Amino acid sequence: MIGIAADLFAKNGYHGTGMAELGQAAGLGRGALYHYIGSKEAVLYAISKEQVDKMNSYAEALFDLGLEPEDLLRQMARGLLRNIAEHRSEWAVFFREHTALTGARRDHVIAARERYESYWRQALDTGVRVGVLRQTPSLLVKGILGMLNYTYLWLDPQGELTPDEVADMFLDALIKGLRL
Amino acid sequence: MIGIAADLFAKNGYHGTGMAELGQAAGLGRGALYHYIGSKEAVLYAISKEQVDKMNSYAEALFDLGLEPEDLLRQMARGLLRNIAEHRSEWAVFFREHTALTGARRDHVIAARERYESYWRQALDTGVRVGVLRQTPSLLVKGILGMLNYTYLWLDPQGELTPDEVADMFLDALIKGLRL
């Protein structure tokens, strides 16, 4: 259901997709649809939170491993691109449409995205502290995440480079530029 | 009119914005609206093509200056971020909604975006040819543009860093990693 809804929202936009279409695609009548999912916004919320929550758990697990900062950054990039390659519609909806969420749902998703950004900043800061990376403005994290996140537009698990190879290529370009 | 429409599309989505709202925001009645702008898709097209066409002209002008490859890349980045900072709604609409275009309009916008990518690739290739940059997979251009383009989400002309400073920071991080 979430995957089908993500495909529809990614294709026609959240505002451009009606509950009737959602129900039809999911093979549910209007009554069943409202019963199971409550509202269109609840579906958008489920789509928006699922992958970013996963990426936060993934980052936390990597931090627990006590990797060197460069390895940590590389593994975070690989994990993100692997996930994006598998869930392109979900990420498209998350990036384009999460601002349509309201109230506590919006707060949760924005907080989750900020937490994910903070893990990247923390990894870069650790690199500075242990003396392997130079100090950089905190806005650089948004640039790195722009580089990684917007692969959802073109990353192809069967493409010329695997998600891991794309992640490595991006980090190869960046890490040298960030070394002390 | 284009600016007003871009703000509306950026806020509510292309599919979520009706001609009636467009007319109201522009202070035009339904008849006048159709007379002046023809269709909602014509407005989306005007929004989508304007800035990318400008960026192509800007890149062509820079190429004509015969700059060193690194300077060329830096100036291209600065030009793009300056433009994005001034036209965030237009870029939001371009990135999120240009796939809603059809026929020749869609073809024009996609070709213009590909031309812009090709200028970046050409600048990187020149750096390789003259022996200052290392050879990189062509997909790197999509990463660099991801880094630059998605500043439309947060770049603030009155923010802690100017668009030029953000561009320089990104290119500082990248160019060292791309040097031979």
TrEMBL record, chains A, B:
The transmembrane residues are: none
Q: Where is the HTH tetR-type domain?
A: 1-55
Per the record, the coiled-coil ranges are: none
Whether Transport counts among this entry's keywords is no
**PROSITE patterns linked:** HTH_TETR_2
Going by the entry's taxonomy, the superkingdom of the source organism is recorded as Bacteria
InterPro entries xrefs: Homeodomain-like_sf, HTH-type_TetR-like_transc_reg, HTH_TetR, KstR2_TetR_C, Tet_transcr_reg_TetR-rel_C_sf
Q: Does the keyword Metal-binding apply?
A: no
Q: Which residues bind DNA?
A: 18-37
Q: Which UniProt keywords apply?
A: DNA-binding, Repressor, Transcription, Transcription regulation
PANTHER family in the cross-refs: HTH-TYPE TRANSCRIPTIONAL REGULATOR RUTR, HTH-TYPE TRANSCRIPTIONAL REPRESSOR KSTR2
Q: What is this protein called?
A: TetR/AcrR family transcriptional regulator
